[in-house]
Amino acid sequence: MNQGLNRSIKNNEVKALFFIEKNFIFKAEKILLRNLRSGSANAMTFDLLIRIYYERDDYSSMIKILDLAIEKTPESSFYRSLKKQAILSKFQTDLEMAESYIWNNLQ
């Protein structure tokens, strides 16, 4: 990747972080997805998108980004572990909701 593109990707990550902090999540997501389309394998781009999707409770998009991070970054083992944790957490949450629903309907 050339230095100009790399600098642009890093600048986009800083802008996205600013937008996240100011609660302009849609703008941040748009910038970060542009980074991915340009071929970014920067962990920060993936980390910020994972944060956005986690806070938005968009499990499907979070798993897609984790899969991309596993495929494209040198930190694939980290993202693989994170994906396992996300799946287990989602499973536990769904199980707790099902138990609560059953419990409330039995009374």
Shape: elongated
User: How far is the N terminus from the C terminus?
Assistant: 62 Å
Oligomer: single chain
Largest sheet: none
Q: Kindly estimate the percentage of residues that lie in beta strands according to DSSP.
A: under 5%
H/E element order = HHHHH
The radius of gyration is 17 Å
Give the helix tally: 5
Structural class: mainly alpha
DSSP strand tally: 0
Q: How helix-rich are the residues, as a percent range?
A: over 70%
Notes on the structure:
It is a single chain. With 107 residues, this protein is mostly helical. It has 5 helices and no strands. The protein has helices spanning 3-21, 25-37, 43-56, 59-72, 76-106. It starts with a helix and ends with a helix.
